């Protein structure tokens, strides 16, 4: 009976350790003053259905995903996202969260006519946002 209880206690502790390790993905520290911003388009711009977005980055460098270089990351473009993704997890790849894992600093985008919001978020080599997140202002564009 005694050993049965001990066995239960151990497995509960092991389970706790496992689940907390699962929840904590290591995050890369962002250098102080690092910032990401749109070079183009400007906030409030009217653009063609297919338009170019240029990504600006200060205080850090761009490196492809999977490459471990200090103080670098790759761009992610958040399109029409009302809530920010979980900054402590690997960013999903969806129509609204586009990864530029080759280290691209611009992209051609085609969107439906109307208003859209764009926001840039840097991710580390594992597609996890830095700590603190390097996140741009959210801009709005009107697609003709
Ligand atoms: Cu990514």
Instruction: Give the class from helix and strand content and strand pairing.
Output: alpha+beta
H/E element order? HEEEEEEEEE
Main beta sheet, described?
Answer: 6 strands, mixed
- What's the overall geometry? globular
Tell me, rounded to a whole number, the average pLDDT. 89
Radius of gyration computed on alpha carbons: 20 Å
Please, how many helices? Answer: 1
Helix content: 10-25%
> What hetero molecules are bound to the protein chains?
copper (II) ion
Strand content: 25-35%
Termini separation (Å)? 75 Å
Low-confidence stretches: 1-21
Give descriptors for this structure.
144 residues; alpha+beta; six-stranded mixed β-sheet; three-stranded antiparallel β-sheet; 1 helix; 9 strands; globular; binds copper (II) ion
Describe this protein's structure.
The chain has 144 residues and is of the alpha+beta class. The protein has one helix and nine strands, in the order αβββββββββ. The strands form two sheets. Strands 2, 4, 5, 6, 8 and 9 form a six-stranded mixed sheet that branches. It binds copper (II) ion. The site of copper (II) ion has 8 residues, from strand 5.
């Amino acid at each position: 009976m005694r050993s049965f209880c001990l066995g239960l206690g151990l497995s509960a502790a092991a389970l706790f350790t496992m689940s907390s390790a699962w929840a904590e993905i290591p995050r890369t520290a962002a250098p102080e003053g690092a910032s990401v911003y749109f070079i183009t388009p400007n906030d409030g711009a009217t653009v063609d259905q297919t338009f170019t977005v240029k990504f600006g980055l200060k205080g850090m460098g761009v490196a492809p995903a999977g490459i471990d270089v200090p103080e670098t990351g790759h761009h992610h473009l958040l399109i029409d996202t009302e809530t920010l993704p979980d900054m402590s997890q690997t960013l999903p790849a969806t129509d609204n969260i586009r990864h530029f894992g080759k280290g691209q600093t611009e992209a051609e985008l085609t969107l439906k006519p109307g208003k859209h919001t764009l926001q840039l978020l840097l991710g580390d080599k594992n597609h996890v946002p830095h700590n603190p997140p390097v996140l741009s202002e959210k801009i709005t564009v009107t697609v003709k």
